[in-house]
Amino acid sequence: MSVSGKAVDRHDAMADRYATEVERYLSKIEAVLEDGILTGTELEELRDSLDRMVHQKKRPIFGALPYKNLSYPAREPGSASAIVPAYKGGNRIVSPEDMEGTTEAPLSKEIAELAQSLQWNPVLIYEWVKNNVATEWYWGGMKGAEETLRQKSGNDADQAALLAALLRSSGFPTRYVRGTIEFFPGIDKVKNLTGIDDPQKVVVFFQRAGIPFKPVVVGGQIANFQIEHIWVESEIPYSNYRGAVIDDFGKTWLALDTSIKPAGVAWNNPLDIVGLPFNTLRDDYLRSVQTTTPLEFIKSKAGEFLSNSNPGKTYQDLLSTKTVIPDVLKIIPSSLQFQSVAITGEYTALPPRIDAPDNVHRHYPGRR
What we know:
Structural class: alpha+beta
Distance between the termini: 64 Å
Strand content: 15-25%
Radius of gyration: 27 Å
Mean pLDDT: 85
Number of helices: 10
């Protein structure tokens, strides 16, 4: 097998660096053995030397890159209610942190312009995010408020970040809430939102998405699911009239969620075609120099096939898509669209690693 010159050069350079670092490390060890004393500085130097010798695996970059199944081990959601959030009677005192922009939810020009177009109104803001942002399934924030807005899609944490940014830009104190929820009214809601009819396949779906979950078994069958979830709470004038901000009276903390769509989603019936030579597309693409991307090539070939077999149909008709069913109440609902099983966190900003064990019970500053 032939190896390119560039690969050989990289390998030789790596081998030289490794040999130099090993020699430096061994010389330091010999010096320590001769002196019989190991100072803190020398220990740090040895640790740094080892770090340079051992290959450091790079963490995957998420965001605009394609998603992939990460084969996470199955994890159950938290079950101990450790936090009483503001909307349930906890700490309702507004602090500066409840109004500030954060890394995942900046108070940017883009966010402020959308909030202004929605009249700085919490009802319009809530309903816009709920009805215009499609729900994706993965655990932990990947996009943040701005990218969720641009893509019009995101999971629970990313939609919560967008909602928090819009509400704070409009002058409404907002926090994040983390907990375990159960779908309401039951398994049919899970099937509709995920597009999966087989509960056993839903198990695999949540596991691959990295979402902590627990099947609810009744009579030997899966009747529902519990999952860990992120939503928000905000202090909103509610007395007159339920968030519509007719006046500034009756402020209260309310829980809001936009990722679990109350009216559900509508799935299309993608065109099922037989005869498109998928097994030869790769070879056809590689047979000659191409000026198009593989996806563009596939779209072109599918279009040619459909023009003959299904006139009037396009590549988009082959794709499974979902559409959020609008839910327009013109008020802030008085309750959430799921059952809260346990609440384990209250945050003014999402932790850098929402899955880290030491973040499970981190909550609003100053509370115990």
